[in-house]
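Two proteins follow. First one:
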Amino acid sequence: MQPTYQQSPMGGTPVTQGSPGGLPPPEQQGLLNQTMASTGRSGRGGTNAAWMNVAAGGVKVEGALERVGLSWQILFFVSSLGVMFGAIVGALGAFGTFELAALVDEIFLFIFGLIIFVLDIPGNPRWTLKYRQWIRKYIRILTRISGTSAWLLFLGTMTACSLWPTSSKISTEDLLLFIAIVVSFVVVAAAIIGFMISVAKSMRLRDVQRAIQAVSKGNFPETFRKYAIATPHIGMRMDEFNRMCADHTQGRTQYPLSDLAVIYNALEDEQKDALSEREFMNWMVGGITLL
């Protein structure tokens, strides 16, 4: 059990958040260099180097997506459409052949495709808010990039298995084969890309965590009170968290709003857009947070 501390507000200066559009190319290159440099500091051998290579690849992939106006959210959204489309096609086939087990499988695929659709639909329409709260409460793992990536990998393989023709007598065999290959490829590719981006963001947050640990020297409550200024009784706001990250990394790390939302989703237990002192302490004394 973590000890509790009495909060006391202190003065400070607010910070301007990064561009919601993502990191600019020079900053991406700096992040890539920082990620690769941390390989030599870790001293964990080949396994850690492999993870660092995945993280470096994630930085490159995210940068490439941003240059063409895409993001991991859009990839997940398109993948959810693919899963639901594949489920509908499979369900029609199951109705035609009276295969109850196959029909149940397609219903399962459609429901989870719909869940990812609600989570990653562009524009964040208001009607999705209550459903997202429900998903975060009961299936929180799907609100993380890594969790959605792992689940999409499973759904992609399940879609291929459910649509793959099992008999050469089926008149639509070629069409089913084409749909199975295309849909499963898109979904699995999005899952792999999402996982790489998740590792990159997680490694970057870990470096910030280590920098704060090194400067604070165990006095984490004081660090929290220094930056949790606007609403100390609720917690540290996103702009205050961004200021803390910048101060402890000599200005190298400042997050865009989209990344701050991903980080807070992983670190805070309640949907209040503020990191409480208890949650901050749990992060400081814990290991790497997989976003």
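Second one, unrelated to the first:
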Amino acid sequence: MPQQNAFRTLFPLVNAFKNRESKFEFGLQNIQTIFETIQVQPLDPK
């Protein structure tokens, strides 16, 4: 599942954003929205 590899690659970025100042929280929420959008899509569309 290539999407799980993408999650593993992007998760350190998310953790880095969490350690930033609160002004970056809006960007973090955008990233979480993208993750949710990716999760909703089927893994193997036919």
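SUMMARY FIELD: The CA atoms of residues 12 and 18 lie 10 Å apart. The chain has a mean pLDDT of 71.
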